[in-house]
Inverse folding.
């Protein structure tokens, strides 16, 4: 079914005034974008405002429609008379030009203006990269010119960033141009979405908090083994100046004119995978419902939303939406061969109850995770034309038996807000039932190793955790330097509950393999690196950028 034609977009002034935003609190960026003063996050939430998290099962490389449902649900709630604001991350240009493509939804559930959102928007990503790389330039210059901080070149841990998939930059050697061009040392790049500066921007509660966190970034260690922070290099203030405007979320809209705040862009497999605290707080002050998206499956973005973001924001979720598809659950049977960048097998379009039955434990595992955090869950089945009544009935029965508050078939891709009416009604019933009893999974007093063990065993289903020698040493250093009370942010594959993308469904009895551990003291969490996960993605043999161009009128095509 073809989506309905797009309606004309609302001028940004109309959108801002419909939310009762003071004229002085927003600054237009063209006709359909505006920066919103982050200080509005200090306002109290509207009485009875509800926070709804959208998450998903472990996806196929094609994605299962989580962004589509964040957008579609917000439009459907508006149709029910609920003033709603969606809060989402800004897409990264790495996946846009790589395999995944744009991050503005699809069909009749999109964010607009999509081209600007997918590319530069208001320049926040560039500000993050500039602040990050200024710190790198400062520390390398400091080492060259007398090294007053006594930084050990072999223990510099802060990487440069670029918002592109560029595998050649994963490991590099710098300072090779002679005595005036830097101290030779091993270095690396990560993608901007995975940078500590991006995480700081997303988790800061205001300008003072941003400035404090930037100064607390640990860039490396002295020759004596003591940590060195950005504040000591005298660069944190300039970094904050670069990020001042980036601290303000950007107001855009859905294709049906529902307001949305787009802010920050951390990935969920290599970062904490949620939009900013400021966006959520501003939305809660101006809407009855805040619909926010967490990246990838509930084992990834949702776990980090609960244990990291909610802990800092003080906001408590009232309900969660768990997006699934028939095809994803069939894939979790292990019967089908998938490759990123390749079309999904045509066999997934044929009824296969045995494969579905074998993959349903993945859905049940994610429902168990949401129950673990005390959040009622609505399962949204993202409908495809090839889904059969028997397959849909089987999912509904198993989801309800596993504790879902309700199950709704969703048509938001094809029909927009109207296609999500049943889902919206189910979400309202769950959010207003009073059954939410949110609680983090662990207390901060636990050692880092115990926090990871709790996530690994209770969320992933692991039997335990194994550490490579390098990870053991880094864990010891983190604890000895006083970072033991930090929460954790696991970096692992999004395709499996485990660290191994080949372990589909609901694997059990495995040991979570940890190869390294990084402390992001400014962001305020520790990152265990599990399996073969990379913080700098690479391009494949058929990247998306090959289909992107300008037509004769200068319009972007193929994005």
């Amino acid at each position: 079914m073809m989506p309905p034609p797009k309606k004309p977009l609302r001028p940004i002034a109309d959108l801002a005034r419909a939310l009762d935003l003071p004229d002085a609190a927003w600054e237009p960026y063209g006709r359909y974008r505006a920066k919103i003063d982050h200080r509005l996050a200090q306002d109290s939430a509207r009485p009875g405002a509800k926070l709804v998290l959208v998450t998903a099962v472990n996806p196929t490389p094609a994605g299962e429609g989580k962004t589509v449902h964040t957008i579609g649900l917000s439009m459907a709630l508006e149709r029910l008379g609920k003033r709603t604001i969606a809060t989402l991350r800004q897409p990264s240009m790495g996946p846009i030009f790589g395999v995944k493509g744009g991050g503005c939804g699809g069909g009749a559930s999109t964010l607009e203006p999509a081209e600007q959102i997918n590319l530069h928007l208001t320049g926040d990503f560039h500000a993050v990269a500039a602040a990050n790389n200024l710190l790198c330039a400062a520390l390398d210059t400091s080492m060259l010119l007398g090294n007053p901080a006594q930084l050990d070149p072999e223990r510099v841990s802060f990487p440069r960033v670029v918002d592109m998939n560029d595998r050649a930059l994963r490991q590099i050697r710098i300072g090779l141009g002679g005595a005036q061009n830097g101290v030779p040392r091993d270095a690396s790049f990560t993608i901007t979405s995975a940078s500590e500066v991006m995480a700081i921007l997303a988790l800061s509660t205001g300008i003072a908090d941003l400035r404090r966190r930037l100064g607390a970034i640990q860039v490396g260690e002295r020759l004596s083994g003591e940590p060195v922070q950005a504040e000591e290099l005298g660069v944190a203030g300039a970094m904050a100046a670069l990020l001042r405007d980036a601290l303000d979320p950007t107001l855009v809209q859905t294709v049906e004119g529902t307001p949305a705040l787009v802010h920050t862009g951390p990935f969920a497999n290599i970062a904490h995978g949620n939009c900013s605290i400021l966006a959520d707080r501003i939305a809660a002050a101006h809407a009855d419902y805040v619909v926010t998206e967490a990246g990838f499956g509930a084992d990834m973005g949702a776990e980090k939303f609960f244990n990291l973001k909610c802990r800092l924001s003080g906001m408590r979720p009232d309900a969660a939406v768990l997006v699934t598809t028939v095809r994803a659950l069939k894939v979790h049977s292990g019967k089908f061969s998938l490759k990123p960048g390749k079309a999904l097998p045509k066999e997934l379009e044929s009824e296969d109850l045995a494969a579905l039955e074998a993959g349903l434990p993945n859905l049940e595992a994610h429902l168990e995770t949401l129950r673990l955090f005390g959040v009622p869950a609505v399962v949204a089945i993202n409908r495809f034309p090839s889904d059969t009544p028997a397959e849909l009935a089987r999912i509904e029965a198993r989801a309800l038996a596993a504790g879902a508050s309700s199950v709704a078939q969703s048509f938001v891709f094809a029909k927009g807000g109207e296609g999500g009416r049943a889902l919206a009604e189910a979400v309202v019933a769950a959010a207003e039932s009073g059954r939410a009893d949110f609680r983090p999974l662990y207390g901060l007093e636990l050692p880092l190793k115990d926090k990871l063990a709790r996530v690994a065993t209770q969320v992933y289903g692991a039997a335990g955790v194994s550490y490579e020698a390098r990870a053991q040493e880094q864990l010891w250093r983190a604890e000895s330097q006083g970072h033991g009370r930090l929460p954790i942010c696991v970096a692992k594959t999004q395709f499996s509950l485990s660290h191994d993308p080949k372990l589909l469904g609901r694997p059990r009895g495995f040991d979570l393999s940890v190869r390294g551990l990084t402390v992001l003291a400014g962001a305020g969490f520790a990152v265990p690196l599990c399996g073969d996960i990379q913080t700098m993605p690479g391009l494949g043999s058929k990247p998306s950028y090959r289909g992107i161009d300008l037509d004769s009128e200068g319009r972007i095509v193929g994005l």
Remarks:
- The chain has a mean pLDDT of 94.
- Residues 448-530 form a domain with the Formyltetrahydrofolate synthetase; domain 3 fold (CATH 3.10.410.10).
